[in-house]
Write a structure and sequence with these properties.
Helices cover about 70% and strands about 0% of the residues. The protein is an all-alpha fold. It folds into 3 domains: about 50 residues, no CATH class; about 35 residues, no CATH class; about 60 residues, no CATH class.
């Protein structure tokens, strides 16, 4: 959080100093603006070709194989050698629904598998009770955002 606030403060200072400079000292702003536009275009093109789609976005579009590839690309960038080749929860639920299960039954079954440690045998993915009680007391105010430190 401190890094984000620092970046915002520095960005604001650059805008204020730049405004003062071009208002009082120099009127030659065209060259600087062209350099800024060129850097923006270069970063946009680089982002389009080099940055993979978010695995969460791909899963929401039911493009599971591409999501696995994106996760493996991210893992490779982070120096992890183990490949991800498991099925996603949503993928399992989609297959169950195609086999005739209702959506509520499929969600309940996948949740039960998680709670029993079937999907992740070394970890229990249960939501702690204190988190549920904490969320019941929230009303969506800015004070609640500051109080809950899970973001």
């Amino acid at each position: 959080m401190l890094v984000g606030v620092t970046l915002l403060v520095m960005n604001s200072l650059v805008i204020v100093i730049g405004t003062f400079y071009f208002w009082k000292i120099s009127k030659n702003w065209v060259g600087l603006e062209l350099i800024g536009c060129a850097l923006g275009v270069i970063s946009l093109v680089g982002t389009y070709f080099l940055l993979p789609e978010s695995p969460q976005f791909l899963i929401s579009r039911k493009r599971y194989n591409e999501a696995r590839e994106a996760i493996n690309k991210i893992a490779k960038f982070n120096c992890h050698s183990q490949l991800f080749n498991k099925m996603f929860d949503k993928e399992v639920m989609d297959q169950m629904i195609r086999m005739g299960w209702t959506q509520n039954d499929a969600i309940g079954f996948v949740t039960q598998l998680h709670n029993n440690g079937i999907f992740y045998p070394n970890q229990q993915h249960r939501t702690p009770k204190f988190v549920l009680n904490e969320e019941k007391n929230l009303n969506g105010s800015l004070k609640d955002l500051i109080k809950v430190k899970r973001h």
